[in-house]
Task: inverse folding
């Protein structure tokens, strides 16, 4: 510990219990449980005293039971428990400023935050954030539902479409009575009933250009892009807008039985056009495959299974939360994080770098240098 905690406590999310007179255990989940061989009960005494009382009182309580222990011995014990991830600063009274709705989220964040951190900080960051959500289909509508539970300050939602009966099997934000209504307006009404503290700015509009998105970006902390039409072009439009504005974006896409998430931090990670250049440089078949697919004009039917959509959208919103708060490292920076719905596995594709000398969007590259950009059906 760089500095001593003020009021350290054992995290309430972890049980502490004796196995016998010599050994005790903290935790009950595989991977975050530890056993301690403590024949003299020194550490067990410390655990019992870590109930949020001031640090001098903790030291005094342990020394009262074991006078031979020094103050440094007690501090070393606190450091050991902190390294195992079992203690936190108590922050008396802080819960009253969060509200009951979000306390379970704070308890989750506490798993990742040690005694030198603040488990309330991620929720405060979420509650002060302003998010732009592009698309309210199978991905976006369920993303918005999850955001309602997290409680950002505002969400601007954008979709040009109306609710259709065929949406209801997977877009569970909507009701039968919403069929024929604007998705944006129906979604705004639903979220108002879920979490009235969130300011919803509903826009019934189509995204056709970088300028369409740029007009929505002022004041935003994060973009979540759940639009995919026209294929690949939509991602290029969003990518250029967020790069020019310097605002992070979490992108999402689904295939038949897999989904992908990737995140662009402008100026830090490779952007979507860096990915185009990267593949052009390293995969001799990339351009021909992309050209063939683009010329095909393939228009697949809707492919979506509700439970799989939920797996993907949960991954997207968690990634957005990681990017916003840093409670844990994001998993899709400069890589495509893929979720396999068939077996529940997930993995990261090989990463791609930022290419400031070659990329025409986040760097100084010339798009004419790279054949792939000429095969996009709409130029950006």
Result:
């Amino acid at each position: 510990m760089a500095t001593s905690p003020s009021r350290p406590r054992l995290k309430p999310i972890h049980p502490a219990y004796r196995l016998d007179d010599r050994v005790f255990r903290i935790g009950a989940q595989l991977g975050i449980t530890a056993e301690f061989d403590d024949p003299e009960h020194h550490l067990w005494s410390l655990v019992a005293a870590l109930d949020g009382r001031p640090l001098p009182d903790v030291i005094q309580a342990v020394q009262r039971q074991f006078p031979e222990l020094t103050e440094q011995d007690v501090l070393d014990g606190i450091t050991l428990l902190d390294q195992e991830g079992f203690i936190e600063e108590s922050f008396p009274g802080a819960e009253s400023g969060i509200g009951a709705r979000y306390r379970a989220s704070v308890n989750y964040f506490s798993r990742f935050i040690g005694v030198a951190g603040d488990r309330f900080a991620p929720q405060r960051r979420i509650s002060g954030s302003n998010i732009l959500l592009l698309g309210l289909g199978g991905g976006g509508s369920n993303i918005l539902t999850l955001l309602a539970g997290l409680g950002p300050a505002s969400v601007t939602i954008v979709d040009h479409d109306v609710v259709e009966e065929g949406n209801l099997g997977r877009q569970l934000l909507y009701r039968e009575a919403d069929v024929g209504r604007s998705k944006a307006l129906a979604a705004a009404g639903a979220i108002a009933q879920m979490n009235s503290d969130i300011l919803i700015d509903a826009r019934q509009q189509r995204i056709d250009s970088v300028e369409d998105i740029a007009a929505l970006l002022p004041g935003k902390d994060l973009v979540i892009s759940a639009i995919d039409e026209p294929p690949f072009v939509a991602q290029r439009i969003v990518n250029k807008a967020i790069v020019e504005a310097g605002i992070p974006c979490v992108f999402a896409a689904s295939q038949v039985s897999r989904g992908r998430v990737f995140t662009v931090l402008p100026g830090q990670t490779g952007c979507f056009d860096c990915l185009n250049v990267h593949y052009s440089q390293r995969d001799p078949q990339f351009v021909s495959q992309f050209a063939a697919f683009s010329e095909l004009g393939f228009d697949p039917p809707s492919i979506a299974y509700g439970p799989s959509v939920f797996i993907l959208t949960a991954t997207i919103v968690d990634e957005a939360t990681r990017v916003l708060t840093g409670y844990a490292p994001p998993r899709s920076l400069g890589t495509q994080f893929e979720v396999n719905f068939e077996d529940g596995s997930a993995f990261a594709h090989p990463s791609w770098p930022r290419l400031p000398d070659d990329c025409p969007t986040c760097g100084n590259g010339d798009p004419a240098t790279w054949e792939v950009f000429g095969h996009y059906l709409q130029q950006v």
In short: The first strand starts at residue 8 and ends at 10. The radius of gyration is 25 Å.
